[in-house]
Amino acid sequence: MKQIKTLAFYLPQYHPIPENDEWWGKGFTEWTNVGKAKPLFEGHEQPICPADLGYYDLRVPEVREQQAQMARDYGVHGFIYYHYWFGNGVQLLERIANEVLESRKPDFPFCFCWANETWSGIWHGLKNKILAEQVYPTDEDLTAHFQYLLPFFKDERYIKVDNKPVFIVYDPINIHEKAPDYLEKFRSLAKENGFDDLYLIGSNKTEDDYGYKTLGYQGKISNAFLRAWRPYMNKKPLITAKQYYTNRIKGLLGLKTTDFQKPVDIQNAPDVINDLHFDETDVDTFPCLISNWDNTPRSGNRGIILGNNSPALFEKQVEKATTFLKDKNYPEKFLVVKSWNEWAEGNILEPDRKNGFGYLEALKKILSKESSND
Fold first, then answer.
1. What is the C-alpha separation between 260 and 117, in angstroms, rounded?
2. Residues 343, 10, 338, 127: what is their CA dihedral angle, to the nearest 10 degrees?
3. Which one in 78, 110, 232, 366 has a CA-CA gap of 20 to 30 Å to 240?
4. Half-sphere exposure of residue 137, counting CA atoms within 13 Å on the CB side?
5. What H or E segment, with its residue span, contains residue 92?
6. DSSP assignment of 279-343, as one string?
């Protein structure tokens, strides 16, 4: 029986790049948003502070080795590196993957998720600013894209299914609508270069009932968590009636008023996770778990918070995912976690100062129990 293999999305935006310097200021990294975060209401736990790994710089090889060892120790099989190819040869944040390839370290499985999405400033206060537009311009660019990926695909650490490199597409609907032959040509290039095919997986961004098999996908990362999440969207006011009327009276009297902030979207994690259930699609379906969520460090009052969360609730997610996968006859049983290190979304497995290794321990506990039962 196939063992469950846990894969965690991995964000490489923890080192400065010229583009971020230009857009957000010299030296900007993901830590910039994390460090400047402030609580938006009473009881709001911000900023979130890293524990054992600190405010790391991914250009330091020892950090990448520590991450891989930590992941391995707690049952994570491999990382899914976000890969940014915008078309016309434009890449961003490729340095870390390039160094992992060239140095052959860490000795830890990985694959790519092509984040085929336009970068805009909408979540960061630059509503009409396009930072990097995702396009699919020419066959020459397509070939150049594949040739860039080929050394990674050939690497023995790259995750494959039956001699098919795993390649995750963040927005499979976008590419199907704008460049319907793109991935078919990618698959042909893979076969020309000695692989049986590509093992294409659609990400959890899009709905599960789109018909991915006809588009050439072999797998789909389940959208179930997002489906369970949506009905509980609500606005929690950050100002009481008493505060509101007191503020109005102060204004009428010419006194200094308080600049109360608008409500933040908060959803109750116990409700969401209680309703979470995974369904099969027309291709191999892989559960996706979200450890936590609070993207207010990036987005302020436009952000969304998953409230009342805990490692114990994450453990329930892992149990549901392993139960779903148990009887599946897939060539590989991937359990996907979003994410390893998206700190400005509060979306992490890495230890923080409040929970320590709590989320990793929850993952390891259930995976170890399932392994012993097989």
1. 34
2. 60
3. 232
4. 12
5. strand 90-92
6. ---SSEEE-EE----B-HHHHGGG-EEEES--HHHHHHHHHHHHHHHHT---SSEEEEES-SEEG
φ, ψ at 312 (rounded to 5°): -65, -35
Distance CA 229, CA 204 (A): 13
Token output for 66: 């520590």
Across the chain, mean pLDDT equals 92
Give the residue-averaged pLDDT of 273-282: 97
Instruction: Tell me the pLDDT tens digit for each residue of 298-353.
Output: 988 888 999 999 999 999 999 999 999 999 999 999 999 999 999 999 999 999 99
Distance from C-alpha of 40 to C-alpha of 37, rounded to nearest angstrom:
9
Q: How far apart are CA 97 and CA 111, in angstroms?
A: 10
Other C-beta atoms closer than 10 Å to the C-beta of 333 total 21
Under 8 Å between Cβ of 61 and 15: no
The answer to whether residues 353 and 50 touch, using CB atoms and an 8 Å cutoff, is: yes
- Angstrom CA distances, 113 to 59, 136, 161, 169, 336, stand at 20, 16, 15, 6, 12
SS3 state of residue 275: helix
Q: How far apart are CA 219 and CA 222, in angstroms?
A: 9
In the structure encoding, which two tokens stand for residue 366, read together? 């259930």
Burial per residue of 278-293, b for 16 or more beta-carbon CB atoms within 10 angstroms, e otherwise: beebebbbbbbbbbbb
In which residue are the tokens 């390839």 written? 101
Q: Is 354 exposed, middle or buried (0-12, 13-18, 19+ CB in 10 A)?
A: exposed
Grade residue 234 by pLDDT with cuts at 50, 70 and 90: low
Confirm if 221 and 203 have CB atoms less than 8 A apart: yes
Q: By the 8 A CB rule, do 329 and 323 touch? A: no
**Residues 6+ away with beta carbon under 8 Å from 147:** none
Nearest Cα neighbor of 15 from 48, 52, 55 is 55
Q: What is the CA radius of gyration of the chain?
A: 22
Q: Using CB atoms within 10 Å of the CB of residue 196, give its burial: 0 to 12 exposed, 13 to 18 middle, 19+ buried.
A: middle
Name the more confident of 266 and 277: 277
